[in-house]
Amino acid sequence: MEGALFRYLEDPLRLQGHTGFCKLRAPCRIYHYWRIEKMKKPVIGITPSHNTENDDISLRPPYLRAVQAAMAIPVVLPLEITQEDLGQLVHMCDGFLFSGGPDPHPFLFGEETQAHCGNASVARDTMELLLLKAAMAAGKPILGICRGAQIINVGLGGTIYQDIPSQTERSFPIAHKQPFPYPVPSHHVTVLKDSLLAGIAAGQTELAVNSFHHQAVQTPAPGLAVSAYAPDGIIEAVEMQDYPYLLGVQWHPEHMWPKDRAAANIFKSFVEACR
Protein backbone atom coordinates (compact mmCIF):
# COMPACT_ATOMS: atom_id res chain seq x y z
CA MET A 1 0.00 0.00 0.00
CA GLU A 2 2.87 2.36 0.83
CA GLY A 3 4.42 1.74 -2.58
CA ALA A 4 1.14 2.54 -4.28
CA LEU A 5 0.86 5.70 -2.21
CA PHE A 6 4.32 6.87 -3.26
CA ARG A 7 3.62 6.07 -6.93
CA TYR A 8 0.50 8.23 -6.63
CA LEU A 9 2.49 11.07 -5.09
CA GLU A 10 5.26 10.85 -7.69
CA ASP A 11 2.84 11.34 -10.59
CA PRO A 12 3.76 14.88 -11.77
CA LEU A 13 0.22 15.49 -13.08
CA ARG A 14 -1.24 14.73 -9.65
CA LEU A 15 1.40 16.79 -7.86
CA GLN A 16 1.13 19.83 -10.11
CA GLY A 17 0.22 22.85 -8.03
CA HIS A 18 0.27 20.99 -4.71
CA THR A 19 3.60 22.23 -3.37
CA GLY A 20 6.75 24.11 -4.28
CA PHE A 21 8.72 20.88 -3.83
CA CYS A 22 7.09 19.23 -6.86
CA LYS A 23 10.22 19.30 -9.03
CA LEU A 24 12.17 17.54 -6.27
CA ARG A 25 10.71 14.08 -6.20
CA ALA A 26 12.13 12.74 -2.92
CA PRO A 27 11.26 15.82 -0.79
CA CYS A 28 7.85 15.92 -2.43
CA ARG A 29 7.24 12.27 -1.55
CA ILE A 30 8.19 12.82 2.08
CA TYR A 31 6.17 16.02 2.40
CA HIS A 32 2.98 14.53 1.02
CA TYR A 33 3.33 11.29 2.97
CA TRP A 34 3.81 13.37 6.14
CA ARG A 35 0.68 15.38 5.35
CA ILE A 36 -1.40 12.24 4.84
CA GLU A 37 -0.09 10.77 8.10
CA LYS A 38 -1.01 13.99 9.91
CA MET A 39 -4.51 13.89 8.45
CA LYS A 40 -5.23 10.33 9.55
CA LYS A 41 -7.98 10.08 12.14
CA PRO A 42 -7.23 8.23 15.38
CA VAL A 43 -8.90 4.84 15.83
CA ILE A 44 -10.76 4.52 19.15
CA GLY A 45 -11.57 1.08 20.54
CA ILE A 46 -14.82 1.08 22.54
CA THR A 47 -15.89 -1.68 24.93
CA PRO A 48 -19.50 -2.83 24.40
CA SER A 49 -22.22 -3.77 26.88
CA HIS A 50 -23.14 -7.41 27.48
CA ASN A 51 -26.66 -8.65 28.22
CA THR A 52 -26.07 -11.95 30.02
CA GLU A 53 -29.70 -13.04 29.65
CA ASN A 54 -29.56 -13.35 25.86
CA ASP A 55 -25.78 -13.00 25.34
CA ASP A 56 -26.37 -9.85 23.29
CA ILE A 57 -23.39 -7.54 22.67
CA SER A 58 -24.35 -3.95 21.98
CA LEU A 59 -23.25 -0.32 22.09
CA ARG A 60 -25.53 2.70 22.08
CA PRO A 61 -25.06 4.91 19.00
CA PRO A 62 -24.32 8.14 20.95
CA TYR A 63 -20.86 6.79 21.82
CA LEU A 64 -20.08 6.33 18.14
CA ARG A 65 -21.48 9.72 17.17
CA ALA A 66 -19.53 11.55 19.89
CA VAL A 67 -16.24 9.94 18.84
CA GLN A 68 -16.91 10.65 15.15
CA ALA A 69 -17.83 14.26 15.92
CA ALA A 70 -14.44 14.61 17.62
CA MET A 71 -12.81 13.50 14.34
CA ALA A 72 -11.91 9.92 15.21
CA ILE A 73 -12.97 6.49 13.98
CA PRO A 74 -14.82 4.33 16.56
CA VAL A 75 -14.37 0.55 16.60
CA VAL A 76 -16.52 -1.70 18.80
CA LEU A 77 -14.32 -4.29 20.51
CA PRO A 78 -15.11 -7.99 21.03
CA LEU A 79 -15.50 -9.35 24.56
CA GLU A 80 -14.31 -12.87 23.82
CA ILE A 81 -10.70 -12.51 22.67
CA THR A 82 -7.35 -14.17 23.17
CA GLN A 83 -4.47 -12.41 24.89
CA GLU A 84 -2.56 -12.38 21.60
CA ASP A 85 -5.44 -10.80 19.67
CA LEU A 86 -5.99 -8.28 22.45
CA GLY A 87 -2.37 -7.24 22.14
CA GLN A 88 -2.87 -6.70 18.41
CA LEU A 89 -5.93 -4.55 19.09
CA VAL A 90 -3.99 -2.45 21.59
CA HIS A 91 -1.32 -1.90 18.95
CA MET A 92 -3.92 -1.08 16.28
CA CYS A 93 -6.03 1.39 18.27
CA ASP A 94 -4.84 4.84 19.27
CA GLY A 95 -6.98 5.06 22.41
CA PHE A 96 -9.69 3.26 24.33
CA LEU A 97 -13.11 4.26 25.61
CA PHE A 98 -14.57 2.14 28.43
CA SER A 99 -18.32 2.59 28.06
CA GLY A 100 -21.20 2.43 30.53
CA GLY A 101 -23.30 -0.60 31.37
CA PRO A 102 -24.18 -3.10 34.13
CA ASP A 103 -22.34 -3.44 37.43
CA PRO A 104 -18.81 -4.82 37.90
CA HIS A 105 -18.76 -8.01 39.98
CA PRO A 106 -18.14 -7.24 43.70
CA PHE A 107 -15.51 -9.99 43.97
CA LEU A 108 -13.25 -7.79 41.85
CA PHE A 109 -12.89 -5.32 44.71
CA GLY A 110 -12.97 -7.84 47.53
CA GLU A 111 -16.60 -7.62 48.62
CA GLU A 112 -19.56 -9.95 48.96
CA THR A 113 -22.58 -9.17 46.79
CA GLN A 114 -24.85 -6.60 48.41
CA ALA A 115 -28.64 -6.99 48.13
CA HIS A 116 -29.04 -4.03 45.75
CA CYS A 117 -26.16 -4.86 43.43
CA GLY A 118 -27.20 -5.34 39.81
CA ASN A 119 -26.36 -8.00 37.25
CA ALA A 120 -22.73 -8.47 36.20
CA SER A 121 -21.00 -9.84 33.12
CA VAL A 122 -17.93 -11.89 33.98
CA ALA A 123 -16.94 -11.89 30.30
CA ARG A 124 -16.99 -8.12 30.12
CA ASP A 125 -15.25 -7.66 33.48
CA THR A 126 -12.48 -10.04 32.42
CA MET A 127 -11.92 -8.47 29.02
CA GLU A 128 -11.96 -4.88 30.29
CA LEU A 129 -9.48 -5.56 33.08
CA LEU A 130 -7.10 -7.26 30.63
CA LEU A 131 -7.57 -4.38 28.18
CA LEU A 132 -6.92 -1.77 30.86
CA LYS A 133 -3.65 -3.43 31.83
CA ALA A 134 -2.48 -3.82 28.23
CA ALA A 135 -3.54 -0.32 27.17
CA MET A 136 -1.78 1.30 30.12
CA ALA A 137 1.37 -0.76 29.52
CA ALA A 138 1.36 0.70 26.00
CA GLY A 139 0.67 4.23 27.27
CA LYS A 140 -2.55 4.55 25.27
CA PRO A 141 -5.06 7.33 26.18
CA ILE A 142 -8.07 6.07 28.15
CA LEU A 143 -11.52 7.54 28.73
CA GLY A 144 -14.04 5.90 31.06
CA ILE A 145 -17.74 6.77 31.14
CA CYS A 146 -20.05 5.74 34.02
CA ARG A 147 -19.32 2.02 34.52
CA GLY A 148 -16.13 2.68 32.55
CA ALA A 149 -14.86 5.02 35.28
CA GLN A 150 -15.79 2.43 37.91
CA ILE A 151 -14.05 -0.52 36.23
CA ILE A 152 -10.92 1.57 35.71
CA ASN A 153 -10.91 2.38 39.42
CA VAL A 154 -11.48 -1.28 40.35
CA GLY A 155 -8.82 -2.46 37.91
CA LEU A 156 -6.26 -0.16 39.51
CA GLY A 157 -7.07 -1.27 43.05
CA GLY A 158 -9.92 1.00 44.17
CA THR A 159 -13.42 0.21 45.41
CA ILE A 160 -16.93 1.28 44.41
CA TYR A 161 -20.29 1.63 46.10
CA GLN A 162 -22.41 -1.35 45.06
CA ASP A 163 -25.52 0.78 45.62
CA ILE A 164 -25.39 4.47 46.52
CA PRO A 165 -28.86 4.83 48.15
CA SER A 166 -28.41 1.90 50.54
CA GLN A 167 -24.72 2.48 51.34
CA THR A 168 -24.59 6.23 51.93
CA GLU A 169 -26.33 8.68 54.24
CA ARG A 170 -27.06 12.01 52.58
CA SER A 171 -29.05 14.91 53.97
CA PHE A 172 -30.15 15.87 50.45
CA PRO A 173 -30.12 12.77 48.19
CA ILE A 174 -29.19 13.68 44.62
CA ALA A 175 -31.10 11.85 41.88
CA HIS A 176 -28.21 9.83 40.47
CA LYS A 177 -30.84 7.97 38.45
CA GLN A 178 -32.54 10.99 36.96
CA PRO A 179 -36.18 11.07 35.81
CA PHE A 180 -35.33 13.16 32.72
CA PRO A 181 -34.27 12.09 29.19
CA TYR A 182 -30.58 11.38 28.59
CA PRO A 183 -29.54 14.78 27.14
CA VAL A 184 -31.08 16.76 30.03
CA PRO A 185 -28.80 17.56 33.00
CA SER A 186 -30.10 16.81 36.49
CA HIS A 187 -27.42 17.99 38.92
CA HIS A 188 -24.13 19.87 39.09
CA VAL A 189 -20.59 18.70 39.78
CA THR A 190 -17.80 20.79 41.28
CA VAL A 191 -14.59 20.57 39.24
CA LEU A 192 -11.32 20.67 41.18
CA LYS A 193 -8.88 23.28 39.94
CA ASP A 194 -5.55 22.33 38.36
CA SER A 195 -7.04 19.01 37.19
CA LEU A 196 -7.18 17.61 33.68
CA LEU A 197 -10.96 18.01 33.83
CA ALA A 198 -10.60 21.68 34.81
CA GLY A 199 -8.58 22.29 31.65
CA ILE A 200 -11.19 20.48 29.58
CA ALA A 201 -13.98 22.53 31.22
CA ALA A 202 -12.20 25.71 30.04
CA GLY A 203 -12.45 27.60 33.30
CA GLN A 204 -15.84 26.32 34.43
CA THR A 205 -15.70 25.30 38.08
CA GLU A 206 -19.19 23.80 38.01
CA LEU A 207 -20.73 21.61 35.32
CA ALA A 208 -24.37 20.62 34.81
CA VAL A 209 -24.42 16.89 34.09
CA ASN A 210 -26.87 14.06 33.49
CA SER A 211 -26.93 11.03 35.79
CA PHE A 212 -27.86 7.36 35.25
CA HIS A 213 -26.09 5.25 37.86
CA HIS A 214 -26.57 3.62 41.24
CA GLN A 215 -22.87 2.82 41.74
CA ALA A 216 -19.88 5.13 42.02
CA VAL A 217 -16.23 5.29 43.01
CA GLN A 218 -15.93 4.86 46.77
CA THR A 219 -12.19 4.63 47.39
CA PRO A 220 -10.03 5.95 44.54
CA ALA A 221 -7.30 3.57 43.41
CA PRO A 222 -3.65 4.41 44.14
CA GLY A 223 -2.51 6.88 41.50
CA LEU A 224 -6.01 8.17 40.74
CA ALA A 225 -6.97 11.69 41.77
CA VAL A 226 -10.54 12.92 42.24
CA SER A 227 -11.35 15.78 39.87
CA ALA A 228 -15.10 16.32 40.47
CA TYR A 229 -17.71 15.81 43.21
CA ALA A 230 -21.51 15.89 43.24
CA PRO A 231 -23.22 18.14 45.83
CA ASP A 232 -23.85 15.08 48.04
CA GLY A 233 -20.15 14.18 48.08
CA ILE A 234 -20.29 11.35 45.54
CA ILE A 235 -17.13 11.20 43.40
CA GLU A 236 -18.03 12.14 39.84
CA ALA A 237 -14.65 12.12 38.05
CA VAL A 238 -11.20 10.62 38.52
CA GLU A 239 -7.98 11.00 36.55
CA MET A 240 -4.34 9.93 36.56
CA GLN A 241 -2.03 12.91 36.49
CA ASP A 242 1.25 11.10 35.77
CA TYR A 243 -0.12 9.26 32.74
CA PRO A 244 -0.45 10.53 29.13
CA TYR A 245 -4.29 10.69 29.37
CA LEU A 246 -6.64 8.87 31.71
CA LEU A 247 -10.01 10.34 32.67
CA GLY A 248 -13.13 8.71 34.09
CA VAL A 249 -16.44 10.56 34.42
CA GLN A 250 -19.58 9.27 36.13
CA TRP A 251 -22.01 11.12 33.86
CA HIS A 252 -22.77 10.52 30.16
CA PRO A 253 -21.23 13.25 27.95
CA GLU A 254 -21.99 11.16 24.84
CA HIS A 255 -25.63 12.25 25.25
CA MET A 256 -24.83 15.92 25.91
CA TRP A 257 -22.05 16.90 23.50
CA PRO A 258 -24.27 18.36 20.71
CA LYS A 259 -25.41 21.21 22.99
CA ASP A 260 -22.85 21.21 25.81
CA ARG A 261 -19.35 22.57 25.23
CA ALA A 262 -17.76 20.85 28.22
CA ALA A 263 -19.19 17.48 27.17
CA ALA A 264 -17.92 17.97 23.61
CA ASN A 265 -14.51 19.01 24.96
CA ILE A 266 -14.18 15.71 26.83
CA PHE A 267 -14.23 13.84 23.53
CA LYS A 268 -12.12 16.45 21.73
CA SER A 269 -9.39 16.34 24.38
CA PHE A 270 -9.43 12.54 24.41
CA VAL A 271 -9.15 12.28 20.62
CA GLU A 272 -6.43 14.93 20.55
CA ALA A 273 -4.44 12.89 23.07
CA CYS A 274 -4.81 9.89 20.72
CA ARG A 275 -3.08 11.65 17.81
Q: Briefly, what is this?
A:
This protein is an alpha/beta fold. The chain has helices at residues 2-10, 12-15, 25-39, 61-69, 83-92, 122-137, 147-155, 164-167, 196-200, 261-273, and strands spanning 43-46, 49-51, 56-58, 73-76, 95-98, 142-145, 159-161, 187-191, 206-209, 216-219, 225-229, 235-239, 246-249. The strands form 3 sheets. Strands 4-1-5-6-13-12-11-8-9 form a 9-stranded mixed β-sheet, sandwiched between helices. Strands 2-3 form a two-stranded antiparallel sheet. It has a two-stranded antiparallel sheet with strand order 7-10.
Please name the defining characteristics of this protein:
nine-stranded mixed sheet; alpha/beta; disordered N terminus; Rossmann fold; 275 residues
Describe the structure in your own words.
With 275 residues, the chain is an alpha/beta fold. The chain folds into 2 domains: 2-37, no CATH class; 41-273, Rossmann fold (3-Layer(aba) Sandwich), CATH 3.40.50. It is built from 10 helices and 13 strands. The strands form 3 sheets. Strands 4-1-5-6-13-12-11-8-9 form a 9-stranded mixed sheet, with helices on both faces. A two-stranded antiparallel ribbon has the order 2-3. The radius of gyration is 21 Å and the shape is globular. It starts with a helix and ends with a helix. Mean pLDDT is 89; it is low at 1-24.
